[in-house]
Amino acid sequence: MSNRPPIRAARDLNETEIVDGLRGIPGVRVYLIDRPCDAIVGFQGSVYLMEFKSRTGRLTASQVAFHAEWYGMVHVVRTLEDALTVLGIKVSGG
Questions:
Q1: In CATH, which of 1.20.120.1080, 3.40.1350.10, 1.10.1020.10, 3.40.50.620 is domain 15-87?
Q2: How far from each other are the two terminal CA atoms of the chain, in whole angstroms?
């Protein structure tokens, strides 16, 4: 059984690039979910909730409500570099 479900067409267009980039990093696990956010990401013993949005994408009303109610962080990620920053992985410039 694979832990890599196919990415649905209804998801943000940049999601495939972000998810594939994260999955290419040793030790990173990405599980796509539908609600209350897009993904659960595990790295070095920590768990991160991530909501993928395009550069101009906005949170829905239900997403805003979830972010306000949740006791932890939900990271809005627009690029692979954003996701790497959340995980504390340095992005090489150049």
A1: 3.40.1350.10
A2: 38
Q: What are phi and psi of 58, to 5 degrees?
A: -115, 150
Over the stretch 16-51, which tens digit does the pLDDT of each residue have? Answer: 999 999 999 999 999 999 888 999 999 999 999 999
**In contact, 94 and 70? CB cutoff 8 Å:** no
Q: What is the signed CA dihedral for 17, 20, 21, 25, rounded to 10 degrees? A: 170
Please report the beta strands in 1-94, taking only residues with DSSP state E, as ranges in sequence order.
Answer: 29-32, 39-43, 46-52, 74-77
d(CA 62, CA 60): 5
